[in-house]
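User: Predict the full complex structure for these chains.
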Amino acid sequence: MKQGSIRWSVYAGLTPAILIVVFAYVGTMIWTIGISFTDSRMLPVARFAGISQYVRLFGSDRWLTSLQNMVLFGVLMIGISLALGFLLAVALDQRVRAEGFLRTVILYPYAMSFIVTGLVWQWILGPTLGIQETVRGWGFENFRFDWIVQKETAIYCVVLAGIWHAAGLVMAIMLAGLRGIDQDLWKASRIDGIKPWRFYLHIVIPMLRPSFISATVLLSLGVVKLYDLVLVLTGGGPGFSSDVPAKFVMDYLFQRQNIGLATAAATTLLITVLCVLTPWLYAEYFRAERPKE
Amino acid sequence: MSSVSIRNLKITFGALNVLETLNLEIAEGEFIVLLGPSGCGKSTLLNAIAGLLDITDGQIWINGRNVTWSEPHDRGIGMVFQSYALYPRLTVEGNLSFGLKMAGTPKAEIARRVADAARILQLEPLLKRQPAQLSGGQRQRVAIGRALVRDANVLLFDEPLSNLDAKLRTELRVEIKRLHKSLGSTMIFVTHDQVEALTLADRVAVMHNGVIQQFATPKEIYQRPINRFVASFVGSPQMNFLTGTIHRRDEASLFRLTDGTEIDLTGYQFRLPVEDRQPATLGIRPEQAQLQPSSNHAAPLKALFTIEEPMGPDTLLWGTVAGETFSIRISADQVAVIGEECQVHVNIAHTSLFDEAGERL
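Assistant: Here is the predicted structure of the two-chain assembly.
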């Protein structure tokens, strides 16, 4: 009797959360997917149009470019951030002075919004304002650093700003992981005569696997959501050369009034993310649980 | 030839002197235990021998080589840690062979040494397991194995049994002793557990405040403690201490307790000269006091026991003698006299006398 009443109160308490999840997340997701199969333009209509929006979507150069950009940004930003963050954490773990200060400085970029990050880097990278202008001012008249206005390189500027923003977070996660490593392990490795870099490579990195996974998941979310940084830093330009899927969706939803195409793009994005993340997370978490037994 | 020799070792952390002019000579194949309460510098000393800690002054010699500034792996030592310090995510075999592999030892040689260590420590069935799948005792055996494969003739143990439960601790203690017998290597073992120290060691170095108080065989440490610290630190329950004064009477001397009881000191071997009416402390181990007189030199003391603690093979009686806490150990079948005054008898040759500074007289 008592057990039963407790269970009901638990359900009662969870109801608001469940309602929000069902209607606000799952509901809108299903609605979005539904819209993507209609020929809605400015307002959602219920005229079924098959997969015509998807055909149009994948015929669009802009969409393909933005997908490529997302993959490029994702691989480079996550890869370099993980490497850089790990190296920073290792450097900070060598009992440096003013560690607390340095830690704050390195983590600080993460506290800034992408809008601010984008603005700052736009100034730094902008040819008429930042590095190029400064170096020219020192007398190197032929110095060129105009990646941000070149079609081929603009996306790398976004990657650069992304790394600057995320590396500190990775460092914080890695540092926490490093601090959890038993000091006796270091002593044992010194007795065994293992060189520090080999110790890091063979012992520490495998031990930090959970930290690497957490960092990767966090950064991946940022990759998929990537919108404001691109908007401020390059505006998706020059042309559409640094466009990303989220920006594509937003543009077609609110500026070009093509809801059907935008929802088709959003659905494609969702499926892409699920295809990549689901098998990986599944494998990771189910494999991680076995040795604990 | 001495295997490990520590000469005028000094270690300071900032303004704090952890060890000061410490000297220690350890013979080849000896089992040495560094015993002391936490913070006495025993682990610091062991880490200094291993080379894991920079020393301030002095020299460390291992196997006739001055290794004061050598890297830990060049010192010919193996070390076992309290927390096992096994490499996670490597199998037992991986843990044993990793150091050798990194040092570029030939494969056949690695296989031979790993097989040897596994055989000695009965690790063969566990070789393919990960440390997380092992019990504490098994993990510590792997850690010992990792020290063995280095073919070092000096093995260092930093409180290796402290993380184990009582039963495993006893088992592994015996195993370590057996290992020492079969390998014949020099072993230095740090512990705060006096039972481990007394059972394992050829010689025990009792440390306090960074100074070796006494360096002697377990028997000597137990029976003839050099000062009050050693006397009270070693032995459980603690040695009984009775204050009083020494009186010289012609040839004989006697010890007068605060309540006026006089104990004949004939038979006690004095280490230092004593004066008449010198204040002193008489130390008596609980098992050295008996309810029945057993020898000629047994001096009777008036005691009042109030508490009886049966321990299984024997029984502890707690009470007072001359107003000071006193405990004796009697065999379990003896009848205890509780709540009324009785006599206890002490063989004075087995007691310890300390002067006011705590030094043995």
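Chain B has two domains: 2-230, 240-354.
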